[in-house]
Structure formats: C-alpha cells, structure tokens
Design goal:
The protein contains twelve helices and 17 strands. It has 452 residues and is of the alpha+beta class. It has two domains: 10-159 and 324-442, FAD/NAD(P)-binding domain; 165-317, Beta Barrel (Elongation Factor Tu (Ef-tu), domain 3), CATH 2.40.30.260. Strand 4 (92-93) and strand 5 form a beta hairpin. The chain is globular.
C-alpha cells in the first residue's frame, strides 16, 4: 500500500470531538481523510443533530487557567494547534474562567471547517471495520456491531459498558497520623509490597455519622440514555447504604482481617484506599463508587477519618460507557498491538472529558502521520499533562483499570515540592508548558512535516 500523503485515504471512525480533531490534523498534514459518522443513518439516544462534534452533555470544556489541570491540558493543546479549541474560543459564552460555549455555534464551527476542507470526505452510515491506516474514535456510544468487532480484535470477551468509579484523592491530603497501612490478613500485596492499602478505621459513632451523611445526600439525575441497570459490581455506595445501616460493614467497609495498630483491635468499620499510580500519589476509595453530586461527595467522604481535608483528583461516577482496557490491550501510543496503523482515540481509550478526548485525537493524528511518513510514534514527557495521561493509560493496573480525567496527581513529581499548593501548581504548569514546547521543537511538530 502506498502510504504517501494524498495517495491512500485514512479512515477515521466517529465524528465526535476526538475524530473531528484527528481528521483536521491529518488533512492539514496533507492526507486524504474519510471521516465516518453513522448519524443520521443510525442515531443514538444522546445526539440531537447530524453535525460533527456535537456536545451531548455539558456545554463547558472546564477551566482555562493553567493552574487547573484541565486548563493546563488546553494550553498544551493550543501549542499543538487544536482546531476544536479554536472553534470553542469562537463560540465562547460568559462563564468566568471556564471555557463554556454556545453548543450550536461550536459544533457548526467544527462541522463547517471539516465539510469545507478539500482533503476531508464525510461518509454517513455505520462503519464496523477497524481501519488501517485509521483511527477509531467512536466514544461511549459505540455501536454494538463495532464494539463486538473491537472485542474480537483485542481477544477479549467484551468492552466495558458501565463505569462504576470511586473517588480518587491526593496522598498529600490524607492524614497519615490517622490512616495506617494494612492488608486483610496481611495477604494483599501490590508490586511485591506488603500492606499495600491505606486504611481509615471507624468506630461506631463515626460509622453512623458517615451513613447518615451518605443516605441523605443528593444524587445526579441520569440522562435517559445514561441510566444504569445496577448490579452488584456496579452498585452506588449510597444505594448499598439504603439497603440497611449495616450493609456497608458487610460490604466494602467490612473490617474483617484488619487490625488497627493504635488499638490492637479490629475496627468497627474500615475504608480502604488502594494506590492508583506507581508513585503512590493517587489513592482510590475502594468500593465507594457513587452517583452523588460533586459537592455532596466532598461533604460526605470528608466525614471519613483521615480524609477531613481530602483533595479529590477524580470524583466518583456511575454511567454508561464503552472503553477499552488500554494498558492490557493497546500499545503505549494506543494502537492495536498487531497493527500499529490502527489507533484509538477519545473516551474509548479510557479518558474522561471533552478536553481529554480531543487531546487523544490530536496525538493519534500526529502519530499516524509520523508512521505513514516512516517515523516512529512519539509521546510527550510525563511532566506534561498530555504525556501524563498517556502514561496512565499504559501503566495503570489492568485488573483495576478505569477511565481517568486530567489531574495534577498524574504528573511527574517536582524535584523540589513547594509547601504552598498554588505555587506548586504554578511550577507544574510552567514546567509542563516549557517541556511541551521543547518536545514540539525536538520532534518537528511545528508544521515542518505538513504538506507543502
């Protein structure tokens, strides 16, 4: 196959944010692109129009401040020339420091650009093959036929179809004078390390207060397309608590096999935290998946001993989703292991959020372009937010893999960590943007490889 730009077309499946970004980036680099979007031939429960890059949930891309993880990722994407962010800027509506947009204006901006591009063809209808060369960016509402094809190609029984996500907190915000290391019966280990879990013991009074806060808290109301048929492995902790006040003590908060070193006794109940990253900077509240509203999650989970000042790096959620177990199934740059020219992007890879999804589409396009030109794929350093997201997708424990959003806990730690949180984030941002620019220069991503 002749893979020179303009000779053999690249097929991109999915006209959402990731697919639209990827199509534009490849077309601008001289490739002929066929963008496959099944709407309106085959509709979804969420979409209302047939336009590319339609936003189906919130109208905000979150913060633009570089001292916010989402804002930092946007700043990195701007250095890489994101067309989605350009369209978002043009459609921006007042929302403080958040990048909120007029939905119709935004999607029209992306749609019209792609429809007018001389090297982009949009084909309507369901596409169920894995393209090579190409990018699969079909998102959480991937059709069953394509999902089945992906599962067959990856050699797994099925994709994940429902997320049951527990909150993640920063290790720096955990009160280590209260929390203690222990594993049930000293049997559970992580990477050969004994006592791999952090534990927050509760006496009866503390447990009762937690149950009271949990059962009275407000929950999100799901979209019709996002309703989850709860089963035991996906049960929100607040639903479990409503079954009976003792239900959590015989479920995720059971104290069996745990001894509190302060009392030398078994706690009344215990919340276990599991390490989420190799550096031990992010810790998952095991078994506490939830549909509580975000302010309620902060209020309720801060009643847990040791978490009174918890900094949440990811909030819990339970919703419909389709995603690949990327660390178990894909290469570090998110291609099929058996075919490097079939890449994945968007929420299908295990990232959460508009900005994160778009960013993976951008990087997938960069790497597919490089490989078709005979160069190796590249990844930004883990000191950048984009590079840190990709590191998570390749290094997360496959047995516990769940989607992740941009957060500062993903970044490579600073050599010298300031005590002041604001200064710490300023230094993270300055380092990330400097190293992203250096990476762009070193890998010739400044337009030098684009078609002349």
């Amino acid at each position: 196959m002749d893979s020179r730009p303009g000779i053999s077309p690249i097929h991109i499946v999915g006209g959402g944010l990731a697919g639209s970004e990827a199509a534009w980036q490849l077309a601008e680099r001289g490739h002929r692109v066929v963008l496959h979007e099944m709407r309106p031939v085959k509709t979804t429960e969420a979409h209302k129009t047939d336009r590319l890059a339609e936003l189906v949930c919130s109208n905000t891309f979150k913060s633009t401040e570089i001292t916010n993880a989402h804002g930092l990722l946007k700043a990195e994407m701007r250095l890489l020339g994101s067309i989605v962010l350009q369209a978002a800027d043009e459609a921006r509506v007042p929302a403080g420091t958040a990048l909120a947009v007029d939905r119709d204006m935004f999607s029209a901006g992306v749609h019209d650009r792609l429809m007018a591009h001389p090297r982009v063809t949009v084909e309507r209808g369901e596409f169920v093959a894995l393209p090579s060369p190409g990018i699969v960016a079909t998102g959480p509402l991937t059709s069953k036929a394509l999902a089945d094809q992906i599962a067959r190609s990856l050699g797994i029984a099925a994709l994940a179809f429902y997320d049951a996500i527990a909150p993640i907190v920063s290790v720096e915000s955990i009160d280590m004078d209260v929390a203690f290391r222990a594993s049930r019966y000293d049997k559970e280990t992580m990477a050969g390390e004994e006592n791999a879990y952090l534990n927050c013991a509760m006496n009866k009074e503390q447990y009762e207060a937690f149950i009271d806060a949990l059962t009275l808290a407000d929950v999100f109301t799901a979209h019709e397309f996002d309703k989850v048929p709860y089963f035991e492995g996906c049960m929100p902790v607040e639903e479990m608590a409503r079954r009976g006040r003792e239900s959590l003590r015989f479920g995720p908060l059971k104290p069996v096999g745990i001894e509190d070193p302060k009392t030398q006794r078994r706690p009344y109940a215990v919340v276990q935290l599991r390490r989420e990253d190799r550096a031990g900077r992010m810790w998952n509240l095991v078994g506490l998946q939830t549909r509580l509203k975000i302010p309620e999650q902060q209020r309720v989970f801060r009643t847990i001993p040791a978490l009174a000042n918890a900094e949440f790096l990811r909030f819990g959620s339970i919703h419909r989703n389709s995603y690949v177990n990327s660390p178990a199934s894909l290469t570090p740059y998110l291609s099929l292991r058996g075919d490097p020219l079939t890449l994945f992007a968007g929420q299908l890879t295990g990232v959460e959020g508009y900005t994160e999804s778009t960013a993976t589409g951008l990087l997938a396009a960069i790497n597919l372009d490089r490989m078709l030109r005979g160069a190796d794929p590249v990844l930004p350093p883990p000191t950048t937010m984009l590079g840190a997201l990709y590191r998570y997708l390749r290094e997360a424990d496959p047995a516990h893999f769940q989607p992740m959003n941009a957060n500062f806990g993903l970044l490579e730690e600073l050599a010298v960590v300031p005590r002041d949180k604001a200064k710490k984030r300023e230094q993270y941002a300055a380092r990330a943007l400097g190293e992203m620019q250096s990476w762009i220069d070193a890998t010739a991503l400044d337009g030098a490889t684009a078609a002349q």
